[in-house]
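Weekly structure sync, notes
Attendees: PL (lead), two postdocs, one rotation student
Agenda item 3: pending single-chain targets
PL asked that the sequence for the first pending target be pasted directly into the notes so everyone works from the same version. It is reproduced below exactly as submitted, 546 residues in total.
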Amino acid sequence: MPRAAVVADPDAARLARNASALEEAGFCVTSATDAAGLAALLQDGKPAVIIADASLLPAIGTEAPVLLMVDLDNPAETSARPSGIHDCITKPPAPRELVHRASALIDLVARRNASRQRAEALREQLRLVSAAVRATNDPQEIANHVVAGFGRTFKADHVLLATFEDERVPRITATWDAPGLQPLPPGVLPDGKEAHRTADLLWAGAETMSTDAPETDDPPAEGARTGEGGGTASGLSSTFSTLAVPIGEGNSSLGIIWIAMRDRRRQWSRAELGLIQHVAGNAAYGLIQSHLISSQQQVVKQLQQLDKAKTDFLATVNHELRTPLTSIMAYLDMIQESTEQPVSPEVHQMLDIVVRNTERLRSLIEDMLSVSRNGLDDSLMHFTPVRLGQTLDLVAAALRPLAKLQNVTIEVDPVPEDPEILADEVQLQQVFTNLVSNAIKFTPSGGRIEVGSESHAAEDGTRWATVSVADTGIGISSDEIDHVFTRFYRASNAMSGAIPGTGLGLAITKDIVVRHGGKIDVASTLGAGTTVTVSLPLDADRSRAN
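Predicted structure, written out during the meeting:
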C-alpha cells in the first residue's frame, strides 16, 4: 500500500519537485505551503512521514517521523536543535536522496515501535509471572511459576530452577520442557558444586552467563558473560544455547535458573536480561518468605502439640486429684458434724483450717479442669434470662465474709433498672466471683471495692450492660497489663508479695465473657488500684447468635 507523506514548503517550485519525486516512488503525497495548511493536514490524519522546511517548524506537533529540510548557509537553521525532529536533509534535496532518506526514516521508526511493543509485551508477561510468585507461599509453586513463565515468554526448550543447601530457602528443583520435548537427560546442565560455584560467581558480579552453540560467532549481549574460554560453560553440552541467572540475597547466591535452547542461538537484549533478573529477585524474596512462613507454621504446630499434651496431662491429673479430694471433704464433714464423738475446740479449729485449704484446693482443681477443656464446652452452657443486678448482689453477699477477714469493704452501687440478659447463670456468677475475689486478694487491709453497672446503647444501635469492679489494691504495671488474661501468668508484684494464685482466674473469666458475646477490659495504675470492665449484650437475638 502507498505510504502517506506530507510535504510542506513555502517554495512552490521546490515543493512541486519534492512531491513529484515521492509520488514516483509510490508515496501518497499531500502538500502545504504555509504553517496553517500544514497544521490542517496534520489534524486530518497521521502520515507515515513529514518532510517540512525548517521555516515551518513551529507548526509541526505530531508523533509522525519528521524529515527537516535545512539551509546549510543559514546559521539560524543549522544552529537550532528542535525536539521531535528525527532527521535532517540539506535543501534543496536531490530527488533520489529525498526518497531514500524518507523511506529509511519510516523503516527506522517502524522498527523502534515494533521493538517497543515487544518490550511492553515482554514486560507484561513477566509481570504476570511475578504476580503469580507473590500470590503463593508454597516454595514449589513459586519455582514452577518461574520456570513455566520463562519457558513460555522466551519460547525456550527447557528451563530449570534449583536451590542450594541453605538455611534461608528450602531445597527444591523445578523444570519446564517445551511441549513435545523430552526432559533434559542428567548431566546436560551443571549441578551440585559446579552450579553453586557458577551462581556465586555471577551473583558477586550482578551478572548473567549466556553460552551459545559452537557455530555462532556473534558477540554476547551487554550484561551477559560468556562461558569459560568464550564458548560453553564447564560441564555444559555444546548442543545447547543457554542463559544462567543466579538467585540470591545479600552477599551469597541461593540457587540458579538455566534457560536452554536446543541447536539454536539466542542473543539476549539488555532489556530481557534486566527483566529476567527482576523476576529472579522476586522469586528469591518469595522463596525466603515462604520458607520463613513454613518454619513459623511448623513451630506453631509443635506448640499446639505441646499445648495439647499439657492439656491432656492436666485433665489426667485433675481426675486423679478430684477422686481422693472428694473423699477427704466428705470425711471432714462427717468428723465436724459428728455428735457421738465430738472433737475439742482446738481440734475443731484445726479442722476448720483443713476445710478451708481443702476448699481452696478444690477451687484450684476446678480452674485447672476448665483450662484442660480449653475453656467451656458450648454444649454444657445453658442460657436463660438472668437479672444482672440480682447476680451482683448474690456474689457480693457470698464474698463479704472473706472481705471482712481481709478488712476490705465491698460496695455494690444501686442499679436504677435491673437489666435482664440471656446468659448461663452459673457461669456468669463465676465471672463476677472471680473478679471480686481477685480484688479482695490484691487489696490491702482498709481498702475498698466498688461494683457498679449501667446500660447503654452503642453507635451501631446495639444495647449493652456494663459491669465494673474497681479496687484500691496494688495495681498492675503498664508493661504487664496486656498479659493478665494469659493462662498461668502472674504479675511480678503478686509474685514478690507471695499472694497466692495460679494465674487462671482471669483467663477463665475472659473465656466465659467471650462465649457470651461480651468484652472484658482492664485498666490499672501501679500502687493505686485496678478496674475490670465487663460488657455483655442486652439484645437476646445477639446473645443467641454469639
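Discussion points:
- Residues 468 and 522 are 10 Å apart (CA to CA).
- The longest helix spans residues 270-337.
Action: rotation student to compare against the earlier draft before next sync.
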